[in-house]
Each structure stands twice: as C-alpha cells, then as structure tokens.
Design a protein that fits this description.
This protein is mainly β and 68 residues long. It has one helix and five strands, in the order E-E-E-E-H-E.
Length: 68
C-alpha cells in the first residue's frame, strides 16, 4: 500500500468545482472537509478556501486488487 495526502479545506465562500464538463460539485461557505487534490488546487487558487491540514490516507497500489 502507498500513502497519499488528502487535502482538507474550509470554504470561505461558495465554490463550484467542475471535475468534468458534465458535472459540478457545489461547496457552501463554511463547509469544512476532505476534497480531491484537483478541487483543493482550484478552490485555493480562486481564493474560495483555505487549506486546513493534510490527512494521510493509505491508498492501494495498482494491482493490489488483482485476484490471487
């Protein structure tokens, strides 16, 4: 298993994150929680959120879910 960081944000203002052209994830001002790295990058760059801390999460390496 590998470790990866999970950004945690607190939104200062409403922010719509568009991970693709067909979907939007709306975050309300005051909401706090874990988000994807792409969302964190966009929200912080737009001034809509502050990075609170970074959690460590154990992820799976490619091939870990292969049948044994």
């Amino acid at each position: 298993m590998t470790e990866r960081t999970v950004p945690r944000l607190k939104f200062k203002k409403d922010f719509d994150f568009k991970p693709s052209s067909q979907s939007t994830v709306a975050y309300r001002a005051g909401w706090e929680g874990p988000v994807t790295q792409a969302c964190a990058d966009a929200a912080v760059k737009a001034g809509a959120a502050d990075l609170i801390n970074v959690e460590k999460s154990k992820g799976r390496k490619d091939g870990d879910d292969a049948a044994a």
